[in-house]
Amino acid sequence: MLDLYLKNGINAINEEPIEIGILGKKIIAVSNKLEGIQAKNTIDLEKSLVSAGWIDDHTHCYEKLTLYYDDPDEDGYKSGVTTVIDAGSTGSDNIEDFYNITRNKVTNVFAMINIGKTGILAQNELGDFSKVQSVPLKKAICNLKDFIVGIKVRESHSVVINNGVKPLIVAKKIQKELGGQFPIMTHVGANPPELKSVMDLLDENDIITHVYNGKPNGILDKEHNISTFAWEAYRRGVKFDVGHGTDSFNFNTFDLAYKCGLIPYSISTDIYNRNRINGPVFNMSTTMDKMLLCGLSLGEVVKKVTEAPANSFNLVTKGKLKPGYDADITIFDLENKEKELIDSNNNTKKTSTVIKPKSVVVMGKYYKI
Ligand SMILES: [Zn+2]
């Protein structure tokens, strides 16, 4: 006897029929058509699209902060996202509290630990280099190894002030001490530090977020070509992440990069309370709408919010609809309706295809949105 049987869905990646059987917190059967199923609860998806639960690998959802904060469930399951990864809101001082207060959330919550011990208590958390301390950081990673999935380093001028890439160098050293594969996500923005000096330090275990921003210290050179150092990082396997945010996604940058083949590895929002309510982020599906409009296929977009972030952050039981994987599932429709999309620099585009999340399964439990 299954706990939950989802029937009559359409797989969003290959557009084939899909049915899923769930027992407890796990997917135990997946097929075009499951025969002879007995389940405590059966839901007819009526040909809605189905994907593995969406994973947003750049969010800010430690509710006790004042700058970037949110309720993980507002960024999460209520908008179709079954897993949120907080991107460095907390450091070794406060990450245990963050862990404790997120245990009763519906949404799966993971965190990258900020290289600065206070997390983002203020915008310049890395301006005072005495806050970069390896010992308590490594201790926190060890104590909370099922929660802390990476290290976050914000490498832009307002954050590091005069410390340049020094915090990133410390993070790379810690990564090496941990065996080399523990992911580092680096945020980029205004200089100094120069984008080149940040990118040159990264390799295939690292994620760079806010890549498609419209700032002067971006991936484009003065002639609006992709800079050589950006191509070099991309070809080295550095994972380029969207990290839309309030200031960090520009349609022109994205269109140019996409045309050249500099395609994001993963799609994320950099969502927090204010840019969720006032825009331009609003939610994950709006960011996905933008990717669709810019030319990515639905299958590509879905993989970049499921398999890709699961791979980046070693979430080995998430990101796919396969037996043995966690029963995290997003059910949604593609609606034909006019919608204006706005980037972080007030550029707008109109779309007529809108992704509308309808329901989710999170660790085996079904929730209508
Ligand atoms: Zn962020």
Automatic annotation (TrEMBL):
UniProt key word Metal-binding: yes
Keywords: Metal-binding, Zinc
Residues found modified as N6-carboxylysine: 152
GO molecular function annotation: deacetylase activity; hydrolase activity, acting on carbon-nitrogen (but not peptide) bonds; metal ion binding
KW Signal (keyword) present: no
TM region positions: none
Residues the record lists as binding Zn(2+) 2: 152, 187, 210
InterPro entries from the UniProt entry: Deacetylase_Atu3266-like (IPR020043), EF_0837-like (IPR047601), Metal-dep_hydrolase_composite (IPR011059), Metal_Hydrolase (IPR032466)
Binding positions (Zn(2+) 1): 58, 60, 152, 270
Annotated positions for site Transition state stabilizer: 154
SUPFAM superfamilies in UniProt: Composite domain of metallo-dependent hydrolases, Metallo-dependent hydrolases
Pfam families, alphabetized: EF_0837-like_N
Protein name stated in the entry: Dihydroorotase
Organism listed in the record: Lactobacillus gigeriorum DSM 23908 = CRBIP 24.85
Species classification: Bacteria, Bacillati, Bacillota, Bacilli, Lactobacillales
